[in-house]
Design goal:
Layout: E1 3-7, H1 11-22, E2 26-30, E3 49-51, H2 53-62, H3 65-69, E4 73-75, E5 77-81, E6 87-91, E7 99-102, H4 104-116, E8 121-124, E9 128-133, E10 138-143, E11 146-151, E12 154-157, H5 164-169, E13 175-190, E14 204-209, E15 214-219, E16 225-232, H6 248-258, H7 269-275, E17 279-287, E18 290-291, E19 295-297, H8 300-303, H9 312-330, H10 335-367, H11 371-386, H12 394-399, H13 405-423, H14 428-431, H15 435-444
Parallel strand pairs: 1-2, 1-12, 2-8, 5-14, 12-19
Antiparallel strand pairs: 3-7, 4-7, 5-6, 9-10, 10-11, 13-16, 13-17, 14-15, 15-16, 18-19
């Protein structure tokens, strides 16, 4: 069996360690931050995650599905809040399927503990990766002012969007793209009631869409919600920005005007806004994902995306599952073949989920309160119910199936073209349930 170095002990690195250790490999995980089980490294800057079908498939294959499910909350629908406080619930699927909300910190702590139970896993914290020898799979870490050298058979860079492993790969023949979107984010924590119940429906993703910016919230086990405000880094003619919403008076006015139902739920919302850090959102596309059959990127190090489809973690977990499947096919002693095939399979899907995530940002921010968007959802749900073999909505393809992201992206674009024609039909608002509309959709498929 091989000696494996994993750089990064976050969500993907910890799951990868479990997969590889269960195969008998000797795994060492090096994380630059302190142990999150002993200090809250995510305080004030977390976005809650959702586990979808792909994530559960990987967690099940790694043998940790039950351990993770114990810390999740099922979410069946979006709940939009308009400026007057009116609510509108939009289910994610016609059969009430759920995605599962989970705290990033809780999930990381749970997976690290599961990994540490395995005798062939060792975890090292406060170890910053300083260099990687791509030919000999040797890493140099800094720990407590000293250098630590670690040589392995294979190195995985699971060290996130600003990966040190990828930084070393970029010194060679490497294609790299980094795109910051115009929006940053801040965390806003919604407290639960003293008895552990929630002030909002815990089985919904709550969204306050305001066209150019939005607030969202996902439930935690304690009855509270982790909320996230997404807003432009700099104000525009259409939207306020983090550069203008500053100071106690302005922040209070902003929330009272834009989110009037939030302050009664979060009495310290102004204090949180002023206290919590402002963080940026970046998209990473790169190639190749592996070099020399000995060093490879995985998770955000290979394909960091914006969080608006809730698929960043799930995509990383699918990376781990695909890698494990390839080891089943090619054997545990043929790393060059495994890593070459892994990169070839996952790169197109990493690009596709980046595009899908940007698309879903527009949907969440602008469209979930748009009557024509809601009409489209009703039409799609009716067609799916009557012809499930012919129509599966894009959201269901991404969240509730194993369809490759690249295939879902292409099919979603085809659905857009079809629905543009359908929504342009005269009187569509009153006849959307008619056989005429159904024939139109089927004729365009």
């Amino acid at each position: 069996m091989s000696k494996i170095t994993i750089v990064g002990g976050g969500l993907v690195g910890s799951l990868l360690a479990i997969f590889l250790a269960r195969r008998g490999h000797a795994v060492r995980v090096f994380e630059r931050r302190p142990d999150p089980r002993r200090t809250d490294v995510y305080a004030g800057r977390s976005i809650n995650l959702v586990v979808s079908h792909r994530g559960w498939t990987a967690l099940r294959a790694a043998g940790v599905e039950d351990a993770v499910k114990a810390i999740t909350v099922p979410v069946h629908a979006r709940m939009t809040h308009d400026r007057e406080g009116r609510l509108n619930r939009v289910p994610y699927s016609i059969d009430n399927r759920a995605i599962w909300s989970v705290s990033r910190g809780e999930l990381n702590r749970r997976l690290l503990s599961e990994a540490e139970k395995l005798p062939n896993v060792r975890l090292f914290f406060d170890h910053r990766c300083m260099d990687v020898d791509l030919e000999h799979a040797e890493c140099v870490f800094e720990h407590a002012g000293a250098q630590v050298r670690e040589t392995a058979d294979v190195v995985f860079g699971a060290d996130g969007a600003f990966s040190a492993v990828r930084g070393r790969m970029m010194l060679g023949r490497f294609t790299y793209g980094q795109e910051y979107i115009e929006h940053d984010y801040k965390e806003v924590a919604f407290p639960g009631h003293p008895d552990g119940t929630s002030s909002m429906d815990p089985h919904c993703l709550h969204i306050w869409p305001r066209r150019w910016f939005m607030l969202m919230g996902l439930a935690n086990l304690d009855g509270g919600f982790t909320g996230t405000l997404f807003m432009p880094h700099r104000a525009t003619a259409q939207s306020p920005g983090f550069d203008t919403v500053q100071g106690e008076a302005e922040v209070r006015r902003f929330f009272r005007e834009q989110f009037p139902d939030v302050e009664p739920l979060v009495p310290d919302v102004v204090e949180q806004y002023l206290r919590n850090p402002q963080s940026s959102l970046v998209i990473i596309r790169c190639e190749p994902w592996q070099v020399n059959g000995r060093v490879a990127l995985i998770g955000d190090a290979a394909h960091a995306i914006v969080p608006f489809y809730g698929e960043g973690m799930n995509a990383g977990y699918e990376d781990c599952k695909v890698l494990n499947d390839l080891l089943n096919t090619h054997g545990d002693d043929n790393w060059p073949a495994v890593l070459h095939r892994y990169a070839a399979m996952r790169k197109p899907n990493g690009d596709a989920i980046a595009d899908l995530s940007l698309r879903n940002f527009v949907e969440m921010r602008d469209l979930v309160a748009d009557p024509r968007f809601l009409l489209r959802k009703r039409i799609e749900g009716r067609i799916q119910a009557r012809h499930p073999d012919k129509w599966l909505p894009l959201y269901s393809q991404v969240k509730f199936s194993d369809i490759p992201y690249a295939d879902a992206w292409r099919e979603g674009l085809r659905h857009d073209r079809i629905m543009e024609e359908v929504l342009a039909m005269p009187g569509i608002e009153t006849k959307w349930e008619s056989e005429e509309v159904e024939r139109k959709v089927l004729g365009l498929l």
